[in-house]
Design a protein that fits this description.
By secondary structure, the chain is mostly beta strands. The chain has helices at residues 17-24, 68-74, 89-96; strands spanning 29-30, 32-36, 42-46, 49-53, 58-64, 78-83, 112-114, 121-123, 128-140, 143-155, 163-165, 168-170. Pfam families: Flavin_Reduct (PF01613).
Length: 176
């Protein structure tokens, strides 16, 4: 026995982006809405989000270079992240829809309030939220890795987060 697990799918070949997505789909993530306020407010659904550092308190979000958010974020000083609650799949789908209205209009069908520090929209009912100052950004291939320094944050202890796994939105299973 070599200690290696037998692959369930064929081994990935460099450049096979479809298989790469399938493989990464085995890793469950939370679902967030990243927002920027100001003169050009914008939001997007993102599951490429993670904590980076406790001191200073840093998080990262990865943004596709072709996304509208890429240009908006590059001009922003602040952004916010709302970690969606299990009941907010509709909000996730709304901010993932390329056909939604742009600017302030995209927030008209969503319950939100401006962050006290950043002014960026925070999704009401979210399981958690952070307001961040743009700290640094790095090349990440076809994405930009954006680091934010948390300036304010909160969590609703009574809410489970919405999950994304295997290409589908999911919820925690009830404990028995």
């Amino acid at each position: 026995m070599t200690g290696r697990a037998a692959p369930v799918v064929a081994p990935a070949v460099a450049g096979d982006s479809r298989l790469f997505r399938t493989v990464l789909g085995a890793f469950a993530t939370g679902v967030t809405v990243v927002t920027v306020g100001g003169a050009r407010p914008h939001g997007m659904t993102a599951n490429a989000f993670a904590s980076v550092s406790l001191d200073p308190p840093l998080v990262l979000v990865c943004i596709d270079r072709k996304a509208i958010m890429h240009e908006v974020m590059a001009a922003a000083e602040y952004f916010a992240v709302s970690v969606l609650a299990a009941s907010q799949e509709g909000v996730a789908r709304h901010f993932a829809d390329d056909w939604r209205p742009q600017g302030r209009a995209q927030f008209e069908s969503v319950d939100w309030s401006p962050g006290e520090v950043s002014g960026a929209p925070l999704i009401r009912g979210a399981a958690a939220w952070l307001e961040c100052a743009l700290w640094r950004s790095y090349d990440g291939g076809d994405h930009t890795i954006v680091l934010g320094r948390s300036l304010a944050m909160g969590r609703r202890a009574d809410e489970d987060a919405l999950l994304f796994h295997g290409g589908r939105f999911r919820r925690f299973a009830e404990e028995t």
